[in-house]
Amino acid sequence: MKQLIEAIVLPLVDYPEEVRIETDEHANRIVYKLFVHPEDRGKVIGKQGRVAKAIRTIVYSAAGGHHQKKTYVDILD
């Protein structure tokens, strides 16, 4: 999933070297924490959150068949 998120996010940002993804796995869920440069946060979130919603939709559908756990994507500083 990390590679999928990177493949989606890296072309969107101006500072690709500062993109970092951490995984926080629990018994019934997996949280992917996406860290980007503060100037890139708006590009990753998009107008009215459309880009973030699209990223989450792609990751959720890909993870649905792969994991038996609930998957979340958080965009952080």
UniProtKB/TrEMBL annotation:
Belongs to the KhpA RNA-binding protein family. This is RNA-binding protein KhpA. Keywords: Cell shape, Cell wall biogenesis/degradation, Chaperone, Cytoplasm, RNA-binding. It holds the Pfam family KH_KhpA-B. It comes from the Bacteria. Its main location: cytoplasm. Forms a complex with KhpB. It is found in: Cytoplasm. It comes from Lysinibacillus piscis. InterPro entries: KH_dom-like_a/b (IPR015946), KH_sf_prok-type (IPR009019), KhpA (IPR020627). A probable RNA chaperone. Forms a complex with KhpB which binds to cellular RNA and controls its expression. Plays a role in peptidoglycan (PG) homeostasis and cell length regulation. PANTHER family: RNA-BINDING PROTEIN KHPA, UPF0109 PROTEIN SCO5592. CDD domains: KH-II_YlqC-like (cd22533).
